[in-house]
Each structure stands twice: as structure tokens, then as C-alpha cells.
Amino acid sequence: MRAMLLGPPGAGKGTQAQQLASARGLLHLSTGDLLRAEVAAGSPLGQEAKAVMARGELVSDALVLAIVRQRLETRSEGEGWLLDGFPRNLQQAEALEILLAELGQPIELVVLLELDDALLIQRLLNRGRDDDNEAVIRNRLEVYRQQTAPLIQHYLDQGLLQAVEAEGSVEQIGARITALLE
Ligand code: AP5
């Protein structure tokens, strides 16, 4: 299975992707996690990304695409994947399509996780990651609306997108996504 989880910050993309990937033997490719690892390691890439992430803006497409390409090209032969937090804008989506065409492995399903802003904000404030303070969360939501939400129509047009209500327990939402994957 080659799929992607799309949705606003706090919708549960990371939580669901981690569980589904481990249950189904898929590669979980989270650009947020990969970038945070670079920041923690203090690499040149991480130093470039750190301040941008702290503001809740998007890191440059070139930087993110380099990480994704490297990860997809070095995965085990035949291993499926679950993208989480990527692509984040139309440019990234188009670059991904070119890369996947090169690999001969197009995306099969995009799952959109839908949740009200009030619940998103509450979940993120409860978590308390470095970029989970109210001002930055509001900026991340605005960046999502402006730059990422246009992907909904993009994937609808390709007949790939299915929406899932992301309210309820982690298990309930996981069952909704699993039904689509099957
Ligand atoms: P990223 O790490 O992708 O963050 P995000 O999209 O803002 O998403 P979150 O991780 O906040 O939310 P999520 O939907 O994964 O929810 P989660 O499962 O964690 O990106 C961070 C930054 O990196 C960006 O701002 C940007 O700077 C940069 N970046 C990343 N990718 C990029 C890209 N492609 N291009 C450019 N820049 C990029 O859940 C949230 C909380 O809710 C958790 O505490 C969880 O335990 C809880 N929770 C989950 N499910 C439930 C439930 N059902 N009920 C109650 N609580 C729940």
C-alpha cells in the first residue's frame, strides 16, 4: 500500500500513521519527524530548518524534497509507505508525482483527516511540543489553509482522496482508515 495522510496540525496524522505503519509493515515517512531529527542533530539542514519550524512556517521545498527522495530511494524493495505531513503544497505534490513516476510507484490513496479547529488547538496545547503554543498553532493552521488545503481538490480531481472524521478515540479513527486501506 502506498498512501498519504493529509490534514491540519493536530488531526492525528502522526498518531495514526505510526500505528498503521507498524501494524501493516509500511514505511512511515513523516517529514516533521525527519526535520526534528535534523534539528536535534544540529546538522546544517537542521540549523536551516529550526527557526522556520519554530514559527510554524514551511521549510523550503528543496530541502524537504531532498529528504523525501533519499528516504524513498533507500527503503527496502517492495516496501509500501505511508506519507505523513508531506506533500504540504502543490509544488511538493507535483515534485512527488515526478519522483514516484521515476520509481514506477504512484500513490494509491490519500486519506483526509477532518476535525474542528477548537479540537485541533486543544489537542496540540495538551501535547506541548516546542511549536505547540497558541500563536504558533494559529499560524500553522493558517499555513495549512493557504498552502496545504488546495491539495484536497488536487487529489479529489485525481480520484484518490477519501475523507475520514478524525473525532473519537485513536482506535475508532484507526478502524475508519483501515476500512479504506482494505
Ligand atoms: P509536522 O510534524 O508535520 O506537524 P503538523 O502537520 O503541524 O502536525 P502535528 O504533528 O502537529 O499533528 P498530527 O496531525 O500529526 O497529529 P498528532 O498525531 O501528532 O510539521 C511540523 C513543522 O515541520 C511544520 O510546521 C513545518 O515547519 C515543518 N514541516 C514538516 N513537513 C514539512 C513539509 N512537507 N514541507 C515544509 N515544512 C514541513 O496528534 C496531535 C496530538 O493529539 C498528540 O498529542 C496526540 O497524542 C493527540 N491525539 C491524536 N489522536 C487523538 C485522538 N483521537 N483523541 C485525542 N487525542 C489525540
Account of the protein in words:
The structure is a single chain. The protein has helices at 13-24, 31-41, 44-55, 61-73, 90-103, 117-127, 134-148, 150-157, 170-181; strands spanning 2-6, 27-30, 81-84, 109-114, 161-165. It has 182 residues and is α/β, with parallel strands linked by helices. A 5-stranded parallel beta sheet has the order 2-3-1-4-5, sandwiched between helices. α2 (31-41) crosses α3 (44-55) and α4 (61-73) packs parallel to α5. The chain is globular. The chain starts with a strand and ends with a helix. The mean pLDDT is 95. It binds BIS(adenosine)-5'-pentaphosphate. BIS(adenosine)-5'-pentaphosphate (AP5) binds next to α1, α2, α3, α6 and α9.
Topology at a glance:
Blueprint: E1 2-6, H1 13-24, E2 27-30, H2 31-41, H3 44-55, H4 61-73, E3 81-84, H5 90-103, E4 109-114, H6 117-127, H7 134-148, H8 150-157, E5 161-165, H9 170-181
Parallel strand pairs: 1-3, 1-4, 2-3, 4-5
The protein binds BIS(adenosine)-5'-pentaphosphate.
